[in-house]
Amino acid sequence: MLFNEVAQYYQKLEEVSSRLSMIDILSEMFSKTSKEEIKALIYLTQGALSPPFEGKEIGMAEKLVISSLAISTGAEQKTIEKLFSTTGDLGQTGEKLVITSKLKSFNSKKLTVLDLFESLTKISNTSGVGSKDIKIRLFAGLISNSSPIETRYIIRFSLGTLRLGLGDATILEALSKSITGNRDSKELLENGYNICGDLGKVAYILFDKGIKGIENMEVELFNPIRPELAERAKSFEEIIERMGVACSVEGKYDGLRAQLHMDKKKNKIEIFSRNLERMTLMFPDILKNAFSEINAESIIVEGEAIAYNENTEEFRPFQETIQRKRKHEVEEKSAEVPLHLFLFDIMYLNGKQLMSLPYEERRSKLEAVLVKRKMILPSAKIIAKTSKEIELFFNKEITEGLEGVVAKDLNSKYVAGARKFSWIKMKRSYRSELSDTVDLVIIGYFSGKGSRTEFGLGGLLAAVYNDKKDLFESITKIGTGFTEKQMLSLSELLGKIKTKKKPARVESTVEPDFWVDPKYVVEVRADEITRSPMHMCGKETYSQDEIGYALRFPRIVSDGVRDKKAEDATTTKEILEMFLLQKKKPLSD
Ligand code: AMP
User: Fold this and answer.
1) Of the residues 409, 425, 588, 589, which should be mutated to test ligand 1's pocket, given the most ligand atoms within 8 Å of the CB?
2) 3-class DSSP state for residue 120?
3) If you measure from the C-alpha of residue 506 to the centroid of ligand 1, how many angstroms do you get, rounded to a whole number?
4) Residues near 238 by Cβ (< 8 Å), separated by ≥ 6?
5) Is the CB of 95 under 6 A from ligand 1?
6) Cα 282 to chain centroid, rounded
7) Distance from the CA of 438 to the CA of which of 59, 308, 565, 567 falls in 20 to 30 A?
8) How do residues 16-59 score in pLDDT, each as one tens digit?
9) Domains of the chain and any CATH numbers
10) Neighbouring C-alpha atoms within 13 Å toward the C-beta of 569
């Protein structure tokens, strides 16, 4: 198929606004396409050179395109820039310049879809020293061989501004119509797309083997599966109502969704994002551990990668997880804040697809392959029968730094690419703000792990003072805010007063590596006070069923210990008052 014809279709697509008309135009274009061309045409029409997970980019900036136009049309660079400033669209500018160009093309061969795809891929593959000039020359050659309307779309494509306004669903419906004459096979095609994340591949199978080929499509390693999405509920009661007698409730980690594909024989691992982009290189820490921590020959699993403080076993805010988005930060951050991967699903294991198994069976297979649980762990989970149980778990997870819970239907299969009520998310709806710092008593400490081993201190367990009962009630672990100097001096100070048993006046079910006599006070800032069953602050009888108070994202701010007695620390009563005075800010979604 000639690209000139495709360009005419692109123009028609731009002229219509109804989705049905778009489908008609597209399906007519597809019906003229051969099996050999369809993959390339699908990617081009999506404005890409590959499916998203291959991330092939053409890498042409406006400047390069302008230089290429100067060569191919003989126009002055300044003239081109001027014309561009009036049209605002370099595609249109190029089209006009080609019409008026006096330079004749040496090559009068007409451009086919495959020629174009090949040329653009060649430009995309050009890298290294001097690649700019090579790109300019290759692109100029392409334009000299193109008609005005082809030029318009080739330039827009190269700058990432093709924007034909086509969604995946529109392309799938058009494909269905082009092969079967109607849109009815859309759902089937969508199923195929959901398990491979590659519209080009789906189209090729359809053209090659027909609808039967699509029906027989299977999950393949290193082809990302489109992720299942969660619905929302208004209350814990609604979750139970929708889920039936019992459901699984998992912690909702506020990190980056990661789908990990691993093939041990090939020594290969890839990690894909929620949008099916490859982000393997962002996770050197997970790559290092996946082969030893996951006991499988080949596997596809899914979870959330999140910054985690190993010393206090606390999650860190989302901002810390994504700090490694930029290349130069990856190595540095992976040493400083190693990510943990909390897996919540398994879709494929040792050559077998598992997506159609019920949740419970998938979950037990997932837990069985996670043999070490150091960096790669299963998500926290309970089986709940009442809304009260969900609420308790929700509060506990929030205090630990999570953003809520996701309830899951015990019998549901993995629904790729869809939002169904088999997963229901419940996030907290507001964030509070604590305006003041608090003074806390150190009641224990954790020995350092990872980069903190040498300091002998990884974090603290801290309490408030209950002056009515004359007891110290645990309220939080503290793992951040320390300088190296502080860690050394605290470890020395606390080493002198550590005890084997929990001191008499201390109430805590959280067990530190070492208890210490409640003696030293530190100043701490936290994001907010939350309700939590985990800590003892504010509980009447200190029983498991009661909900106490805890701090979320605490960090030490005093320069060492304060000159206060333990009994002068912030009291339980003050925490309760502060909790009521907290300012509530709605969370944006
Ligand atoms: P949202 O992004 O608010 O629509 O919530 C859904 C997202 O929560 C998913 O895409 C996952 O990235 C994330 N998530 C975190 N923890 C879990 C979990 N245990 N199960 C499922 N999704 C989770």
Assistant:
1) 425
2) helix
3) 37
4) none
5) no
6) 11
7) 308
8) 989 999 999 999 999 999 999 999 999 999 999 999 999 898 88
9) 3-158 (1.10.3260.10), 229-424 (3.30.470.30), 438-582 (2.40.50.140)
10) 31
